[in-house]
Design a protein that fits this description.
With about 140 residues, this protein is of the alpha+beta class. Helices cover about 30% and strands about 35% of the residues. It has a single domain (about 5-135), classed as Roll (ph1033 like fold), CATH 3.10.590.10. It has 5 helices and 6 strands; from the N terminus they run βαβαβββααβα. A 6-stranded mixed sheet has the order 2-5-4-3-1-6, sandwiched between helices. The mean pLDDT is about 95. The chain binds a DNA duplex (12 and 12 nucleotides) through loops.
Length: about 140
DNA sequence: GCCAACGTTGGC
DNA sequence: GCCAACGTTGGC
């Protein structure tokens, strides 16, 4: 079981869109590091859902329901997609500023490699983030 | 294989 | 809208 963080600009595809659709094909990734991460995703893995640009924050959870396969939206064989399903929307999003406040999260790729659109998250970071989400929801 | 030029991402 | 970070491209 692994944990990930996937990014999307809410104007393009938001957690609400995923909630409505229940499930989506995560396409459009055109970066090799991100692609490699998607290849490593296993069914049942959890992906933190991150809104970039307009409201930088972790807004909820999604789950991998189909492992990587060739991206049907391009002829290029280099790219893959996964299918993810809606899992949860946090009552209160965890803003990027909030993430920066906690020493336990200071090594997150989100802070170190801010441009990477599919990132690995450690179990420790994931557990801490869930705890944080619950506290903020109060 | 190096590196300059260029394009894109994303925080602010 | 600006700009830093960083990935990609292409000339040499």
């Amino acid at each position: 079981m692994n944990y990930w963080l996937i990014k999307s600009e809410p104007g393009t595809y938001s957690i609400d869109d995923l909630k409505k659709e229940k499930k989506t094909m995560w396409n459009g990734v055109r970066n090799y590091t991100a692609r490699n991460n998607m290849r490593d995703m296993k069914k049942g893995d959890i992906c933190l859902f991150y809104h970039s640009v307009t409201d930088p924050s972790i807004v909820g959870l999604s789950k991998v329901v189909k492992e990587s396969y060739q991206d049907p939206t391009t002829e290029e064989t280099a790219w893959v997609v996964v299918d993810v399903a809606f899992e949860e929307k946090f009552k209160t999003p965890i803003s990027l500023n909030e993430v920066k406040l906690h020493p336990k999260l200071e090594n997150m790729q989100l802070l170190k490699q801010s441009r990477l659109s599919v990132q690995k998250v450690t179990k420790e970071e994931y557990d801490f983030i869930l705890k944080l989400a619950k506290e903020l929801a109060k």
